[in-house]
Amino acid sequence: MAAAPKQRCEFLNRTLCPTHRPPPLRRKAANPPPSQSRTHLCGLRTLRIPPHGKALSRLRWVVEVNECIGRFRQLYCNFARRNKPRDLYLRMTEYAEITDSRLQSRVRSRYEVEIAALEGLGFRQLAFKLEARGPFSAVLWLPLLPLMRQAREVLVFPFPLRLALANVLYVHGEPPSIACCMGMGVKLYTNFSDHSLLISSTLPSHADFQDSNRHSNLQIVRTPPCKTPQEAWLAHKRRTSEMQARGNKVGSTSSFADYVAISEREEVDLRSRRA
């Protein structure tokens, strides 16, 4: 009971005495920032930053994302070394028909001129196509995204950060052919029974393949690129007639599955030319 008046006096001194100075609070010294950084095999650096304040929290989030990208790049490179280019492409690329009406409207609006030209030549719509690369391909293909935007490609980014291109496919019955509208131009495909593949296009880059057609191991023949879809279709029909005159019969070129098989063959051929 004797301690109660003493405690009351101390309370009055702290609250009423103007000369009373409370002892200074002892603050814990902040941990010094680390002097070393960790470097991944891909060259990305990450730092350990204490999460104090909103700015540092956001910076820490960016650092963690950077670290995850570095780990994914390392895993992707290790996976690519253990697999052949053809197997890697076939596993990582997926083709699907687009059923979303809003995405179909975007594609139709983008390729309005090409669609009108193909329909004037007797083509009819086959399907809206979505070609999606592997997981996190949007990060791996980041340097090429400005060029795709410049070509007005219809880009979609499905989970997880996949890079996908949306296009429209058209089909013709005589000769059996499939047309694909792309940002750089229009491609025309025709299959033959001897596993030959004829490709005509309005892509200027296909001019580089004319001298190397005889070196292709996949029996892919490309006509010289044309300026308009009408000119490309005339050249395509003329070359088809020449191949039929030599005894080649036109194979199945009328379904979405036929286009997927054609596109995979073309991609493997392009990769073999770059090697």
Task: Describe what this molecule looks like in 3D.
The protein has 275 residues and is an alpha+beta fold. It has 2 domains: 38-82, no CATH class; 91-274, no CATH class. It is 42% helix and 18% strand. Strands 3, 4, 5, 6, 7, 8, 9 and 10 form an 8-stranded mixed β-sheet that branches. It has a two-stranded antiparallel ribbon with strand order 1-2. Strand 5 (154-156) and strand 6 (164-173) form a beta hairpin. The longest helix has 29 residues, at 54-82. The radius of gyration is 32 Å and the shape is elongated. It starts with a helix and ends with a helix. Mean pLDDT is 78; it is low at 34-51 and 83-90.
Entry keywords:
eight-stranded mixed sheet, alpha+beta, 2 domains, 18% strand, 10 strands, single chain, two-stranded antiparallel sheet
